[in-house]
Amino acid sequence: MKILAVISQKGGVGKTTLATALAVAAEQDGKNVALFDLDPQASACFWADRRRDTGKGETPVVRDVNFNRLPHVLEAMRNGGADLVILDCPPQQRDIADAALSVADMVLIPTRAEALDIRAMTQTVRLAQQMGKQASVVLTFCPPTGPEVEQTREIVAQLKADLVPVSIHLRKAFARAQQDGQTAQEYEPTSKAAAEIQRLYEYSRTALYGKDSHGKAKAKSRRVA
Q: How far is CA 143 from the centre of its chain?
């Protein structure tokens, strides 16, 4: 079982959007997936509620998890046959961030290409590095033009973090999909938003499982513990 932590010390950078989209992408790839909502605001749980209410599906599994119980619940997932657990982490919660980083096999840090977001991203990267974790930074809500994105890429390189080779742009499909408990690749399968998520998932899959492995594939309909 692999653990992917989606984390940033600032809100509004798309953590839950990416966490839910990656969970669905992994499920579509044949994996048994659980998404742990560690954020007291419970946005991922709200997404799952909407998903059930609108008839879009009961999976992937989304659980509201107190970070103090994280090791125990992860062990239950491991015994229950989960292939991937995604941790949707809150901003400005150092204790929760520490708990998530300590168990993560991959750390994904979303950031906008804006000053305050870059500052928070820098803090999150350094926190991950202090705990011996290699951070992967993904640029989100990217504008179509302007120098900000390239400047942010240079900052990521200076921090010696990995830069995800796909940027997530500001696209309506992301917000519209969330309203009904979907993801961009479900809402508009042939859209640019869906293509970006697929590339992000492929990058994450390689980082977690290696270039020659797609991880353990199982029936998509099976529920993990």
A: 21
Q: In angstroms, what CA-CA distances link 136 with 56, 116, 180?
A: 30, 19, 29
The three-state secondary structure class of 86 is strand
- pLDDT band for 217, please (50, 70, 90 cuts): very low
User: What residues contact 67, with CB distance under 8 A and at least 6 apart?
Assistant: 38, 95, 96, 99, 100
CB under 8 Å to 76, separation ≥6 — which residues? 225
Both tokens of 116, joined, read 């305050």
Is the pLDDT score of 131 beyond 60?
Answer: yes
pLDDT band at residue 144 using 50, 70 and 90 as cut-offs: confident
What are the φ/ψ torsions at residue 19 (nearest 5 degrees)?
-60, -45
Residue ranges of domains in the chain, CATH in brackets = 2-206 (3.40.50.300)
- What is the sign of the dihedral through the CA atoms of 48, 51, 57 and 58? positive
Q: What would the pLDDT profile of 155-173 be if each residue is shown by its tens digit?
A: 999 999 999 999 999 999 9
8 A C-beta contact, residue 86 and residue 23: yes
